[in-house]
From TrEMBL, chains A, B:
Superkingdom, natural source: Bacteria
Leader peptide range in chain numbering: none
Keywords: DNA-binding, Transcription, Transcription regulation
Gene3D superfamilies per record: Winged helix-like DNA-binding domain superfamily/Winged helix DNA-binding domain
Name of the protein this chain belongs to: Transcriptional regulator
Species assigned in the record: Actinomadura physcomitrii
GO molecular function: DNA binding
Transcription regulation as UniProt keyword: yes
Domain HTH hxlR-type as annotated: residue spans: 10-108
Length: 119, 119
DNA sequence: CTCTCATGGTTTCCAAAGGGTACCAATGGC
DNA sequence: GCCATTGGTACCCTTTGGAAACCATGAGAG
């Protein structure tokens, strides 16, 4: 059975933990078009704080999803780029965002129905 | 551009927050085969605590992803089942788990390379 | 020489979420 | 009365997420 993700010891869980981070998802989407600098990412991904963005990027680097290239310049320049592995992750992520855009209305409606239920 | 998920005010973000919960993902996978009871889910999804499972199920119900059916029996019986909306979410989620199973080795290897790098 | 600006973070602090354990209500069996 | 089962809830603590401030470096302005 493929769904051994149910076993907490299965490494697949480890992936879900990665996907289960909305910032990682947004970083993958942001880098899909090519390398970007830290501040670019920060501006592009609305609402992310530098600390969390750094954490996210470092973890993704550790997991082999992206590379971090520091240029010895002033002011500093650091470019982040997806590895082939990270790039391949873009496809399933795109499937999620496609689903999201298609069904977001239904979810919002369900939520409104539930929350605002007048009795 | 479809990636308006970058805007924190875009409702697509709301979906990512949902997907961005590994327990929701596992619940969808668990219910893909048909309705299940609370304790079944709890046993099937290794490592989830009842509190968190309840939270997850309630949120998913609110979002229209599943239904909760309480039978007036003793001991109590509660069945959870995916709605068509929840069922449709199974496809992109499957894409993620497929990716995970295919590339988990690479991620684990990258992580080991990074962590254990002897110098 | 000092002041300012820009970049790519780090540090500190606080609130929120996640998770573990214990417990509850209702009823059947013993 | 006591235990077991089910589907949770309550309590508490640790971890995480997030806001805001600060830092090092060097160029350019004054």
């Amino acid at each position: 059975m493929r769904g051994d993700a149910f076993d907490p010891d299965c490494p697949t869980r480890l992936i879900l933990d990665r996907i289960g981070d909305k910032w990682s998802v947004l970083v993958v989407l942001s880098l899909a078009g090519g390398p970007r600098r830290f501040t670019e990412l920060r501006r592009r991904i609305g609402g992310v704080t530098p600390k969390v963005l750094t954490q996210t990027l470092r973890t993704m680097e550790r997991d082999g999803l992206l590379t971090r290239h520091v240029f010895a310049e002033v002011p500093p320049r650091v470019e982040y780029a997806l590895t082939p592995l990270g790039l391949s992750l873009g496809r399933p992520i795109q499937a999620i965002t496609d689903w999201a855009e298609e069904h977001v209305e239904a979810v919002v409606a369900a939520r409104a129905r539930h929350d605002g239920l007048p009795g």
